[in-house]
Amino acid sequence: MATAHTKTPVNPAKLKALTERVALEVSEGRLPSAQVAVGHGGELVSFETFGDAHPSTRYRLQSVSRPFIAGALWKVVDEYGVDLRAPVSTWIPGFCAGITLEEVATHRAGLAYAPLGAKRMATRESRLEAMSRWQPDPETRGHIQFSLTSTGWVIWEIVETVTGLPLPDFLAQRICGPLGLTAQLAVPVDQQGDVAPMVLLGEAGDELDPWGPWYLDPADVLARGEPSHSMVATAADVAMHYQGMLHSDVWSREIVNEGIRVWAREPAYGPIEHGGTDHPISMGLFVTLRGDSWQQGWMPATGSPETFGHGGAPCQQSFCDPVTGLSFAFLTNGYPASGYALDRWGKNLSAVLLDLAGDLI
Fold it and tell me: Tell me: the pLDDT tens digits for 14-40?
């Protein structure tokens, strides 16, 4: 266990309640390990590790990866003059006609299930070949439906085309390195020793869902760096990445404000395990926003409407509230066979941790 504290307006008693709630899940055997981190004022306020892990242990972020990919997109838009309203074919010749980068970044391109399996992830050539055959779903084109893998790869390709750096190198050199983070995309197999293994929750005989997060379990697949889910990081990395968005010179204030404003708001298509909702949600540029609704399950009811971030499988959570200045991350490596903790326990745990974290000030 490791903790860092600085002088902040964070309420110590509330912080204690938050970390004790995470500790309880591990001590009672419901999770194999967990990390929780809180940032404020550009500093790491609290960082604790519980269970079979160390402070240096990194976790597969699953969809908590997306704010990192969003940060790369924002930076390229800001510094290279990339036009969000331009068609993606500007950078990827032959890409689906008319689909804009804005539609991709707000999950409105109709490409939620565009295929790009583990084998085709391996090379740029095979990825581009797969993209050339994608066709948008006419029913969901123009509407919010969270893309499982496709949009992250589109952002990778645009970053690489514009900057000459593959997305993992761009993140390392232009964002994670300057911020002093250990977060990484496309970790070579021989460097994955500090990555927490995925641990099955429930019965050993339960059949794993190969279309859920378990497809990232093999080391060689993790090494390919699927952008929307394959970042690895500590909870401290996640919390401090958000603090960097608020306080560092890695991003301009103007582009952060653009990234976290509401670009689209409506119920999300799709099943609940893929982010579908029966109530409106708000989208920024590759991040979710609390907006006027806290029902979506990824944001604290106790946060401001400006709160942004992303949750991820199995029940991992992260957010940043620019009004209070708080950032928060909860990571774990315990996964049900389905990959998603959407039962009563998982939903309650997510809601409790989010609301406790959002109420720290």
Answer: 999 999 999 999 999 999 999 999 999
